Amino acid sequence: MLVSSIARFNALNTMNNASFASMQAANSMLNGVNNAHTFGGEHDLSMLNKMDKKLSLDLLTNKLLYNVAYLQEKMASKNQTHKINKSLNILA
Question: Among residues 18, 15, 22, 19, which one has the least CA distance to residue 56?
Fold first, then answer.
């Protein structure tokens, strides 16, 4: 039971970290858009394009990490509940 609790807490921690990283990437994207007037010329547009690609990839990576951690937490919760029910059946 301790192992499944640790697995659940680890998955929840990963979910929180992924959510925070997604929020940071989204904020960076918004800051880039809001400060677009500071970039000038054709060469700086390629830099903005690179930033956009990197931050979009970060958002997708964090979303995938969040979903994987969510499924891990869900499986650990189900496993923990199953073990509790099994141990209660043995005691009864």
Answer: 22
Residue 82 binned pLDDT confidence (cut-offs 50, 70, 90) = confident
76 C-beta neighbours (distance < 10 Å), count: 20
Residue 71 has pLDDT above 70, yes or no: yes
Which residue do the tokens 């690609």 mark?
Answer: 53
Contact 62/22 with Cβ under 8 angstroms?
A: yes
Q: What number is the average pLDDT over the span 60-84?
A: 90
Structure tokens, 54: 């990197």
The angle formed by the CA atoms of residues 73, 79 and 80, to the nearest 5 degrees, is 85
Contact yes or no for 11/69 (Cβ under 8 A): yes
Q: What is the pTM of this model?
A: 0.71
Q: What are the residue ranges of helices labelled H in 1-92?
A: 2-34, 41-91
